[in-house]
Write a structure and sequence with these properties.
The protein is mainly β. It folds into two domains: 42-151, Cupredoxins -  blue copper proteins (Immunoglobulin-like); 202-470, Cupredoxins -  blue copper proteins (Immunoglobulin-like). Helix content is 4%, strand content 37%. The chain is built from three helices and 29 strands. The chain has a six-stranded mixed β-sheet. The protein has a five-stranded mixed β-sheet with strand order 15-13-10-11-19, with no helix packed on it. Strands 21-29-28-23-26 form a five-stranded mixed β-sheet, with no helix packed on it. Strand 5 (92-93) and strand 6 (98-99) form a beta hairpin. 40% of the residues are buried.
Length: 489
């Protein structure tokens, strides 16, 4: 994708040289007749959006991608817009103060109509975050003299593109929480069965991307973008050497194009290059699981961090030959951060804040997608004497997690999701955005153990989970009060 060159004003100076002419005294020069102005016209264009060569673009009736539109000063330009692939788009020309309403499959065609009063080269593009970056940009070329009512053009600067990039339509009005919101929190116990000792096989997975209102917090909702209606998306499990066929279907009522990039995949941008899927369509990739380990996957459609922050992340475990050691319980937990237009806990339907996301200032930190996902909606459970394994990852998109369980020590840690080496006796382990780890711990005392990010201010923003352990205490491990024998050493 080519980066547009900075817009530059072209100043034209025309000099007319009048030569003196001798005329008879009685003669006078005939008055010049005024030339009639060219009649103004209506310039009508019809553009569909579509995906061409992996890019989102505008296409005219002749199949021209991002066509150059032409007009003369005084003309009225009418542009009829429709979504060819079904996703939501718009068109803006900030230099002319022009913006269409948003359109998609559900809205049908929309029309933007305006009069051009000054000449110049003007950029039109889609203002949906990420769409301009992936190809939705063209030019409107206007020729002719400026009209009297035309405002003086602003001085040209090399910052023109920056000004255009900052254009944002008016924010949506505040509204209360969506009454149809549902819990999107993935059940941490939903871990696929262990594979163990077997020969490589062909595995087939099918996933659906769904946009839906979800419960972010008590009295607060948010429009999540998800894999299979949950955050994180389903945990996938394979064995090194397996061939995986993955089909991604985008729900028909989606407004956005979605995709999947699996960090376990070699080639094709992890699958993101070939899974840009429009609403109502599906695409399939096939890959070989070459490396054992725990890997993150996420949506890879621009604006990528926006898709991730809305909930589009998950993990795939690739077991080594012979599988992993047997444990009593396995859990699946992921941390993410969310950037919202209103403060944490506001009783509203939260809209995403791209400015906060760009500045890396989250309003929420969540385990499994929502506040209370692992304390109210679900809890991790175990018994004294059992060994628990937690597959932990960070969707991000921006923040590192300092994963810790209050009241426990990790007996084993597979740092960065690598199965090639093990650390022992670890208190807190760092997990990068887009990274993962595996921790194991043997439960030796009953009680409620808190899962946290040890950047502890984040607990107040939602990053708290509970591991409930029941059973009889192991003698000597922990006791509230003085030593029963009353002896000191």
């Amino acid at each position: 994708m080519k980066t547009p060159l900075p817009l530059r004003a072209i100043a034209a100076a025309v000099c007319i040289l009048a030569l003196p002419v001798s005329l008879p005294a009685a003669a006078s020069a005939p008055a010049a007749k005024a030339q009639p102005a060219a009649a103004a016209a209506v310039r009508r264009y019809e553009l569909n959006t579509n995906i061409v060569d992996g890019k989102m673009v505008y296409v005219d009736a002749k199949g021209q991608v991002n066509p150059t539109l032409v007009a003369k000063t005084g003309d009225t330009v009418e542009i009829v817009l429709s979504s060819g692939e079904g996703a939501e788009h718009d068109m803006v020309i900030p230099q002319l103060n022009v913006a269409s309403s948003k359109f998609s499959n559900s809205s049908g065609k929309v029309t933007v109509r305006f009069k051009v009063t000054r000449a110049g080269s003007f950029v039109y593009y889609c203002s949906i975050p990420g769409h301009r970056q992936i190809g939705m940009e063209g030019k409107l070329e206007v020729t002719g003299p400026a009209l009297a009512e035309a405002p003086a053009p602003a001085p040209a600067t090399d910052k023109s593109d920056a000004a255009l990039a900052l254009y944002t339509p008016a924010p949506s009005p505040m509204r209360g929480p969506d009454p149809s919101a549902v819990s999107v929190a993935a059940n941490p116990a939903s871990v696929p069965a262990a594979i163990g000792q077997r020969a490589p096989q062909l595995l087939k997975y099918r996933m659906e991307t769904v946009e839906l209102p979800g419960k972010l917090d008590d009295g607060t909702s948010f429009t999540y973008w998800t894999f299979n209606r949950q955050v994180p998306g389903p945990m996938l499990r394979a064995r090194v050497g397996d061939t995986v066929e993955l089909t991604l279907f985008n729900a028909r009522d989606s407004k956005m194009i979605h995709s999947i990039d699996l960090h376990a995949v070699t080639g094709g941008h992890g699958g993101g290059e070939h899974t840009q899927v429009a609403p109502g369509q599906e695409k399939t990739i096939t890959f070989k699981a070459l490396h054992p380990g725990l890997y993150v996957y996420h949506c890879a459609t621009p604006l990528v961090p926006q898709h991730i922050a809305a909930g589009m992340y998950g993990m795939i475990l690739v077991e080594p030959e012979g599988g992993l050691s047997k444990v009593d319980r396995e859990y699946y937990v992921m941390q993410g951060e969310m950037y919202t237009g209103r403060p944490h806990g506001a009783p509203v339907h939260q809209e995403p804040s791209l400015e906060k996301m760009s500045n890396e200032l989250p309003d929420y930190y969540v385990f499994n997608g929502e506040v209370g996902a692992l304390s109210k909606t679900h809890k991790l459970q175990a018994k004294v004497g059992e060994t628990v394994r937690i597959y932990f990852g960070v969707g991000g998109p921006n923040k590192i997690s300092s994963f810790h369980i209050i009241g426990e020590v990790f007996d084993k840690v597979y740092s960065e999701g690598s199965l090639s080496s093990i650390k022992h006796d670890v208190q807190t382990t760092l997990v990068a955005p887009g990274g993962a780890t595996i921790v194991e711990l043997k439960m030796e005392h009953p009680g409620s153990y808190l899962l946290v990010d040890h950047a502890l201010s984040r607990a107040g923003k939602g990053a708290v989970g509970v591991l409930e352990v029941t059973g009889d205490a192991v003698p000597g491990v922990y006791h509230a009060g003085a030593h029963p024998a009353g002896q000191s050493h």
